[in-house]
Structure formats: structure tokens, C-alpha cells
Design goal:
Elements: H1 18-31, H2 36-55, H3 65-78, H4 88-109, H5 131-139, H6 144-156, H7 160-164, E1 171-172, E2 177-180, E3 189-192, H8 195-207, H9 222-236, H10 245-258, H11 263-270, H12 275-278, H13 282-297
Antiparallel strand pairs: 1-2, 2-3
Helix pairs in contact: 1-2, 2-4, 3-4, 5-6, 5-9, 6-8, 6-10, 10-13
Length: 413
Amino acid sequence: MVRFDLPPPPPGVLERGDEAAVEAFLAALAAAGASPKTVKAYAAALRDFIAFIHERGKTLKTVDDSDVAAWVYERLLHGLRRPRGGDRRGRQATLHYYTLFLRGFTEWLGLPVKVPVVRKPRPRSPDALKPEEVERLLNAARDTLDLLIVALLFETGLRAQEAVSLTLRDIDMERRVIRVRNAKYGEERIVLYGPLTDQALRLHLAANPPRSPDQPLLGISYSGLYKRLKSLAKRAGLPPEKVRPHVLRHTFATEALRRGVPLPVVQRLLGHRDIKVTQVYLHLVDEDIRRAYQAAFGAPPPTGQQWQQPWTPPPAWQPPQPWQQQQWSPPPPSQQPQATGQPWTPQPWPTGAWQPPPQLWQPWTQQPPAATPASPAWAGTALAASPAAAAPASEPQPEQDPGSPPPAPRRRR
């Protein structure tokens, strides 16, 4: 939304009444450079709010937050006095801008009122006509004006108000260029048109010679353009609600992207300030990519016949059956042991004392090993059996002279 640098309100504007305050605000908008269409939209929103609070016995000097909330709720629930759409989505979209306009008005006046802005509904996927549907509209044209309307909107993507505001002075037929002066936001832009529009334009001017270069090209109003398209749709066998000026604008954007026109170029031709608005049309081009992919890879290869069979689920689980005892039967004769003809006789148990198996255990009769040269001199004597000789390795004994007596044992304290 465009923000305007407005002059301050005149002194004592609220003392002259609510309508005088609205008129002063609209005059400030026009002085700040707002287009007549913008001023008209502000006037519709503010006068609707003024009429609502007057029904509640309030004025701008006594209005409060509850009055604003009641106005928003009432208009969302039952619609505006002049609704732009019959469904809730249309009312929500209109009230989004109405609350923005009212907030700017109250801030300009310095009123201590909080205006909640209604959230803008999410944009729908734009509708676009197929090339064969555009061809059906062209074939259903009754005169050169019908032909020019369809060709112009399809090849330029003009808005409805931009199309009905065109004059012959805005068209350069040699270069096939149109200068759009009454564009949205008050900005001018240049658009191009193709051979279809060029042919329709020459036929229409030959059948209806212009009287002056400032004469409107189409010579119809905004509502007359809608009526022409609906009549064309009925003759072409298309749903009338599907054929609207903005749908033809969507069709132009979609076809331009589909034919390889870069996104920034489409943005400039459509007059979008934000490229995100233009990116909405990429959704329709993505559907073409999906269809092309499905056509190329959607069918399974001919060698994959095994996995093309319909899948059958496994059998349902069954509980185990209860165990049933069966009567024993002897094995067949082929599996029975063959008889030798000799009866079996038991063997007697051996008698006598038990004898160990031979050569499993023998008593140790060898002599102890001789002392090695590294053994002390008293090894093998009575010193070997003394407590000192049996002391653990953690308490080493001092070396003794072979000729000295053994040390006395320590007394335990």
C-alpha cells in the first residue's frame, strides 16, 4: 500500500462535523498525489464507518475502540453496504483495505483509537484459460470490437480499467507499443502487442474510423467490458464466471512464462511493483512441468511386468490349533530292526576288589634335586627349617657369615 505524505489537518476540523473532517482528509490525499480512484476508495471506507457510528449515537469526537471493533465484526459478518464480493473472502479482502484507510484517517486526526487491520486473505491460485479456449472466444466474436477486446487483453495483460482508458494517442501502431497512462498506483508503463492485436486493431479502426486521437479506443465502460466478455463466453460454450478481464490477464502472464519470457520482464509488462506477485503465475507453469514429467515417466517400462501385478495382502493370522494326542502305531516293517535269531542273555557282574587302572598312578620314588651352585652354603642343613628360613619374601634376611651363629629370633611385642 502506498503511503502519502499528507499535510496536517486544519485547526478545529472536528468542530465542523464528521463529514467536514472526511472532506478535509480526502482533499489532503488529492494534494499529496493520490489518484482519483484511490481517493474514491478512501471516501467509500470512511463514509461507511461514519454512517455506522452515527447509528450508534457516536461521533468522531466520542468514538472508542469498541465502536471500531463492532464495525469490523458487523461488516465481516453481514457485508458492506456496497460489497465488492458476495462471499466472506471478498468481504475480508475489501475490509482489509477499509481498515487500513480508517487507521490512516484516525492517525491523521490524532484520535486515540486503535484500529485493528483485518488480515488479507491468502491469494488463490490464478485461473488461466487454455489456448484452445482463447481460440473459441476469438471464433465467437460478433464484431471487430469483440475481436479486439479478446486479442488486446490476451496479448498485453492489461487491467480492465487500463484497457477501457486507452486512446488512439496511446498507441504506436508502427512499433506495436502501447503507453499505459492510467496504470495502477499512478505510474506509467510501456507494453507491447502482437500480430493478433495488430490485425484486430486495424480491422476495428477500418470499421469505426476515429474522430480524434483522444477518443477512447474501445468506447465502452468498465461494466460494459465485463458484459461483453460474459456474452462471448456463453456463445463460445465456456462458463461465464471463468471469462473475466483479470482471467485474460492471468492467461497472458502464464503464456509468457511458458514461452520462455524471463520473470522480471513479465513483471514489468504486468506493472507489478513486487516480483512476488508475478511469481504466483509460476504455479501454473509448474503444472505443465508436472504433466510433461508424467507423460515421460508415468508409464512403467515394458520389462517390469512382475511388479505390475496387483498386490495381494498376506493371509490373515490364525491362532494355533489345540494339541491333539494321537495313538501310537508301530513303525512299518521296513524301519524295524532285524532279528538275529539268538536270544539275549544278561552278562554276570564282575566280582572281587576294585583295582585301579594300570600305569595311571605311581608313587614318587625319586630323590630331591641336588643343590645348585647358587644356593647358600647352609642349604640342606638345619637352618633351612628355621623360622628365618621360612620368612616370607617381603622380609629379607641379612646375609650371615658361614662361621657365625644364627641370629636370635625377635621378641613379639
